[in-house]
Write a structure and sequence with these properties.
heterodimer, A: Rossmann fold, six-stranded mixed beta sheet, 7 helices, 10 strands, 40% helix, B: 287 residues, mainly alpha, MetI-like fold
Chain lengths: 276, 287
């Protein structure tokens, strides 16, 4: 356990063939990063940094073109209940109540009815929705839906929790309260969390380490250690937080600019290819 | 709504918010208003029908139409009750219903699995689409003579026609239901390592239920339609037969009683399907 990291990405590259062209599109390139057991790592990047590609790879829904992804030292070969994914759009089944949604992963795990029910109850409680178990998703607010989604992913007890911009669709207040909630859950459960976001504040507030990605292809530009005291009041305004934000902002800003110029020049390249 | 989320849930004051909310929830789904407004709604729903029946009753009586060809509604109702009394109506209704139901059930058993296969496997879709498109655009009644020639004048040809007519609405709606399942739900279920069969059973099928039911309702309507037409052409029992036979024997009130029965059977058929649908899709926003 202690000798190798919980989750390890080793020189992971993913390319997609482009229709009608010989060259492939490189979505992510040579990503190497290790997550220790119980670590909270945040990936932050501009649009087009291959976030969703990376998540599909980690989820085992696609395979890397080269490189390897290891979970507890064993390569990831497909989807499985050792990883739980929380999506930005919740992905709750609309015909199931909150409780039944949480039980969904437990059914996949093959647990009996009584145990499913008991666990669902426990995790509803953990995310503060004890009395909302019988509500259907459309009867819940965005924040509540995301709490249910988090509870669902935690309930089947995965080794790693993968979160794909989970709070991006929420309003600012809800987002902040869910960030606190997530930190509390992380501290209670001791889960290893890989969190993807494009918000710098969110990254610093949540992560023990923040990995900054480049745009097109996504590579790791820098890994920043976050060492701030989160118990202080209004952490986001503290000196340490602000200097970290500026540091990451500078790293990202360059990438955002680059992404923009790439986007502007890309169509011109295409038309040249067509003419030739 | 947002007030409940803004409060941190782990503290005690927040506990009051969730507790106070559940009782509030049933209100919009339960009694929507007072008794008075309920009565008004019933009246509004019935008003057009009552007006229609009134026109039917009085138009023949004051001589706007010939009483012989359009007897007043009260006379038709009387005949209707009479036909119920002597068991004739039940004989025809049961003949028609058993044909319609048998055909409908066969169509469901064929069209839903086929629709799923077409929606899921692209090669199947590519192979079957042209022929289905051809059949779909061939009016079922145009094939009635063919069915009679091949299958004879008995029950088989009528049931086959019902199967034919109700297969397409179910098939097409099943295909579109399965194809339009939210890809994120599929992705999320796949990431849990669900097997294809489980994925189908737990995600794709429940997600397509509303669309499939639209198809079932359309199929129910068209199954009755083609059946009546088939019974009018050649049958010894059934509502279609009742109508044509009464017309030929100049039993005009009987003919109208048959027509009214068809309307009622159609309404009941649709009502049953809507009720089943409600039961299966209580989770939807608008039900």
């Amino acid at each position: 356990m202690t000798e190798h990291p919980k989750l390890s990405l080793q020189h992971v590259t993913k390319q997609f063939p482009i229709r009608g062209e010989d060259t492939a599109l490189t979505a992510i390139e040579d990503i190497t990063i290790d997550l220790a057991a119980g670590e909270f790592l945040v990936l932050v990047g501009p649009s087009g940094c291959g976030k969703s590609t990376l998540l599909d790879l980690l989820g085992g829904l696609t395979e890397p073109t080269s490189g390897a992804i290891l979970l507890d030292g064993k390569p990831v070969t497909g989807p499985g209940l050792d990883r739980g994914i929380v999506f930005q759009q919740y992905a709750l089944l609309p015909w199931r109540t909150a409780r039944k949604n949480i039980e969904f992963g437990l059914e996949a795990k093959g647990l009996g009815k009584a145990e499913r029910r008991e666990r669902a109850e426990h995790y509803l409680d953990l995310v503060g929705l004890r009395s909302f178990g019988d509500r259907y998703p459309h009867e819940l607010s965005g924040g509540m839906k995301q709490r249910v989604a988090i509870a669902r992913s935690l309930a089947f007890d995965p080794e790693v929790l993968l979160m794909d911009e989970p709070f991006a669709a929420l309003d600012a207040q809800t987002r902040e309260s869910l960030q606190d909630e997530l930190l509390r859950i992380w501290e209670t459960t001791g889960k290893t969390i890989l969190f993807i976001t494009h918000g710098i504040d969110e990254a610093i507030y949540l992560g023990q380490r923040v990995a900054v990605l480049t745009s097109r292809p996504g590579r790791i530009k820098n890994i920043v250690d976050v060492d701030i005291d989160r118990s202080a009041e209004d952490v986001r305004s503290s000196e340490g937080f602000r200097s970290l934000r500026h540091h990451i902002w500078t790293l990202l800003h360059h990438e955002v600019e680059r992404a923009r110029t790439q986007e502007l020049t890309a169509p011109a390249d295409d038309s040249e290819v067509v003419h030739v | 709504m947002s007030s409940a989320i803004a409060t941190p849930a782990q503290t005690t004051p927040a506990a009051a918010t969730p507790v106070s909310q559940p009782p509030a929830a049933p209100t919009p789904r339960g009694l929507r208003g007072s008794f008075g407004s309920l009565a008004w709604r019933i009246f509004k729903a019935a008003a057009a029908i009552l007006a229609f029946l009134a026109v039917w009753e009085f138009a023949p009586r004051i001589g706007l139409v010939d009483k012989v060809f359009l007897p007043p509604f009260s006379q038709v109702a009387e005949t209707f009750v009479e036909l119920i009394g002597n068991g004739q109506l039940w004989e025809h209704v049961s003949a028609s219903l058993s044909r319609a139901l048998l055909g409908f059930v066969i169509a469901v058993a064929v069209a839903i699995p086929l629709g799923i296969a077409i929606a899921w496997y692209r090669p199947v879709a590519e192979f079957l689409n042209p022929i289905l498109e051809l059949f779909r655009n061939t009016a079922a009644l145009a094939l009635l003579p063919v069915f009679i020639l091949i299958l004879g004048i008995g029950e088989t040809s009528k049931v086959a026609l019902v199967v034919y007519a109700s297969t397409f609405p179910i098939l097409l709606n099943t295909i579109s239901g399965v194809r339009t399942v939210d890809p994120l739900l599929i992705k999320s279920a796949r990431s849990l390592g669900l097997s294809p069969v489980r994925l189908f059973q737990k995600v794709i099928l429940p997600a397509s239920v509303p669309t499939i039911f639209t198809g079932l309702r359309m199929a129910a309507a068209s199954s009755i339609l083609v059946l009546i037409a088939a019974e009018m052409v050649g049958a010894k029992a059934g509502l279609g037969y009742l109508i044509t036979a009464s017309q030929l024997n100049f039993q005009i009130p009987e003919m109208y009683a048959g027509i009214v029965t068809i309307a009622l059977v159609g309404l009941a058929f649709n009502g049953v399907i809507v009720a089943v649908e409600r039961r299966l899709s209580r989770w939807r926003v608008n039900t």
